[in-house]
Design goal:
Elements: E1 3-8, H1 15-28, E2 32-36, E3 39-40, H2 52-60, H3 66-72, E4 75-76, H4 83-90, H5 96-106, E5 111-116, E6 124-126, E7 129-130, H6 131-138, E8 142-146, H7 152-165, E9 170-176, H8 185-193, E10 201-204
Parallel strand pairs: 1-5, 1-8, 2-5, 3-4, 8-9, 9-10
Antiparallel strand pairs: 6-7
Helix pairs in contact: 1-2, 5-6
Length: 228
C-alpha cells in the first residue's frame, strides 16, 4: 500500500495534526513520504505558513513557498466555508474525479503518499458530489480522525458506516483529544473499538500541530502498514 487518505468526522477535529505526526514518524523510519491537501478553504496566502498546507510542507521539510503550496494544494479557496460554498464564491468547480486524479498523480513507487481531506468525510464538493465520492474514486484506504467530544460516538460510527458503504477500506481510527471531553479519550476509544473492529484504534492527546512533536506519542506508522 502506498496511498492513504486522512479524513475525519468534521472540521477542526485533528486531520492535520494526525497527518503531520504520521509524516514525521515515517520520515524518521527512513521512508520516502509525500503529502497533499488537494482542497483547502479559508486560505490566506499572506499566512500560508500557518495554514494546513503550510504545516504539511514543514513536516515534509519543504519550504513554504507559493510554488510548493500550489503543488500540494491546487484548489486554494479564500472563504472559510464548505468547499462547494467557497468554490461558488470564486467561480471555481470541484469534482470527485479531478481530486482523485490529482492524488493518484502525486503517488510514486516506493513512497508513502498521504492525502489530507477537507472538512468531514461527506463535506459537499458541488452538485451532488461529496468528498466521499472522491475517496471512493481514488480507492485508497482511509484513516478516520474523530474527536472525544460529547456526541463523537454517533458521529464516528456514522462516518465509518458511510465509508464502508462507499467501498472505502478503513485503515484505522484515530481519536484526537478534543478541548472538552466528557470522559477520558481512552474510554471513547474502547467504546468505538466494540464497533470498529479489525483496525487499529489510536488515541492522540491534544497537541498544537505547529509545535515540535511531543515525546511518548503513539506510533501511527501502523496505519500505513509500516510499524517497526
Amino acid at each position: 500500500m502506498s496511498g492513504l487518505f486522512v479524513t475525519s468526522t468534521g472540521t477542526g477535529i485533528g486531520k492535520t495534526l494526525v497527518t503531520t505526526l504520521l509524516i514525521g514518524r515515517l520520515r524518521a523510519q527512513g521512508r520516502v513520504v509525500a503529502a497533499v491537501k488537494p482542497v483547502i478553504t479559508g486560505f490566506d496566502p499572506a499566512d500560508a505558513a500557518a495554514s494546513d498546507t503550510g504545516l504539511l510542507l514543514a513536516a515534509l521539510g519543504r519550504a513554504v513557498t507559493a510554488r510548493n503550496v500550489a503543488a500540494i494544494s491546487p484548489w486554494r479557496l479564500k472563504a472559510p466555508l464548505s468547499p462547494d460554498m467557497a468554490a461558488s464564491r470564486e467561480g471555481a468547480t470541484l469534482s470527485a474525479a479531478t481530486i482523485a486524479a490529482f492524488c493518484r498523480d502525486a503517488d510514486r513507487p516506493g513512497q508513502v503518499t498521504l492525502a489530507e481531506g477537507v472538512g468531514g468525510a461527506m463535506v459537499p464538493l458541488g452538485g451532488r458530489e461529496t468528498l466521499l465520492d472522491a475517496m471512493a474514486a481514488l480507492g485508497w484506504p482511509a484513516v478516520l480522525v474523530a474527536g472525544s467530544y460529547l456526541g463523537t460516538l454517533s458521529h464516528t460510527l456514522t462516518a465509518a458506516r458511510a465509508l464502508a458503504g462507499a467501498g472505502v477500506n478503513l485503515a484505522g481510527l484515530v481519536i484526537s483529544e478534543s478541548p472538552e471531553s466528557p470522559v477520558p479519550p481512552a474510554e471513547t476509544a474502547a467504546t468505538l473499538s466494540r464497533y470498529v473492529t479489525s483496525v487499529p484504534v489510536i488515541v492522540v492527546p491534544r497537541l498544537d500541530p505547529a509545535a515540535p512533536p511531543a515525546r511518548g506519542l503513539p506510533d501511527l506508522t501502523v496505519l500505513a502498514g509500516a510499524a517497526p
